[in-house]
Amino acid sequence: MSLFDRRALLRTGASLGAAAVVPAGLATPAGAAETLTLYNGQHAEPATAVVQAFMNATGVQVAIRKGGSAQLANQILEEGAASPADVFFSEETAPVAMLAARKLLAPVDPATLAALPPQYAARDGSWVGITARCRVVAYDMRQIAPGELPASVLDFATPAWKGRVAYVPTSGEFQSQALAIDKLRGRDAAIAWLKGLKDNGRVYNGNVAAVQAVQRGEIATALVNSYYWFSVADEIGEENMRCQLHYLGHKDPGALVTLSAAGALASSRKPELAQRFLAFMTGEAGQQAIVDAVAEYPVRPGVVSPYKLKPIGELDPPDVAPDDVSDGAAALALQREAGLA
Questions:
Q1: pLDDT of residue 33
Q2: pTM to 2 decimal places
Q3: Residue 315 within any structural domain of the chain
Q4: Would you state the pLDDT for residue 15?
Q5: What is the CATH number of the domain that holds 222?
Q6: What residues form DSSP beta bridges with 157?
């Protein structure tokens, strides 16, 4: 089931999970005894890290409600003006863009937007990128030599790679990649790529599972985001990784850079605090806390990841804007036409 499928709507109660107030661990200054409610669909580690850093810096408490990004976005849609959420942090851009299209997000403070490169925010300023991530090919170096890898991600959707390529059709970034192909090569090319993967590839239910399958030698390659490789390497040690990363570059859709993103709810009863949190997330301290916790790229210039990431300036991604790959409904339509949804 797609991350953007309306069927992913959370039921209230146990499906959503109770909001948990994370203690600040320090005395709250007078006048700052407020609680911000964050709906978090991003990975737990970066969200927890930036929340703790924000609380330590401000004394404000943060209540985190956890769930899948699409699930939380649909929950906000159902809640409407009654939503308790102040800020929504999404693993992908599509759920945030869906809320923006329905006028459920407040414009991001211009000062926050001005501090970041323009490619890291929505064109209309309705949401802002928090981290960047790159699409890559994970490959088993015992089965594949780097010179044997195709020049384009489109080449993996061919009989030459039958049974040798893993993909995760429910991944938001995979769906964004299909939209990038649509944007750059046309709808027919995107449909042909999806159909080719359906005929020749092997479906996995998650990106970590796909990387682990390559690591085990179960399959030769996988189309994933780079940070999932680092997640597996953190567990077993980089020196033990037979799975390696191939960066396609050359503005190929296989080198797509996507974003995690956040927005302030238009219905927030604490709009200034919500904007303050967005500013912190994209500020130096917030960005450092996030990239220390996950192998994703900071969006703020000058912040350095402790992970051995390929420099973002060397990725040579395709020329598509976040808005071009954030239409969840369009992604679903492509997958349905190709028989993947």
A1: 64
A2: 0.90
A3: no
A4: 32
A5: 3.40.190.10
A6: none
Query: Taking 90 as the threshold, does the pLDDT of residue 30 lie above it?
Result: no
Question: Are 238 and 286 within one domain?
Answer: no
Give buried/exposed letters for 104-136 (b at 16+ CB in 10 A, else e): bbbbbbeebbebbeeebbbeebbbbbbbbbbbb
List, in order, residues 6 or more apart from 144 with CB less than 8 Å away.
220, 221
Distance, CA of 173 to CA of 248 (rounded, Å): 16
Residues 125 and 268 in one domain: yes
Asked if residue 81 is part of any domain, the answer here is yes
Give yes or no: residues 17 and 81 share one domain: yes
Question: Which residue do the tokens 């594949």 mark?
Answer: 144
What is the sign of the dihedral through the CA atoms of 42, 324, 174 and 15? positive
Q: Are residues 52 and 184 in the same domain?
A: no
Domain with 271 in it: 6-131+257-309
SS3 (DSSP) at 221: strand
Instruction: Reduce the DSSP state of residue 263 to 3 states and report it.
Output: strand
Show Cβ contacts of residue 218 under 8 Å, excluding neighbours closer than 6 positions: none
Tens digits of residue pLDDT in 43-58: 999 999 999 999 999 9
Q: Are 40 and 73 in contact (CB under 8 A)?
A: no
Range list of H helices, the chain: 44-58, 69-79, 93-101, 110-114, 172-185, 187-200, 207-216, 226-236, 271-282, 284-293, 328-338
Q: Which two tokens stand for residue 189?
A: 């090319």
Residue 286 placed within a domain: yes
In terms of phi and psi (left: phi > 0; alpha: psi -120 to 50; beta: otherwise), the region of 192 is alpha
* 176 and 221 fall within a common domain: yes
Strand partners, 245: 138
Write out the H or E segment, with its range, that includes residue 40.
strand 35-40
Q: What share of the chain is helix, strand, coil (3-state, %, to 5)?
A: 45, 20, 35
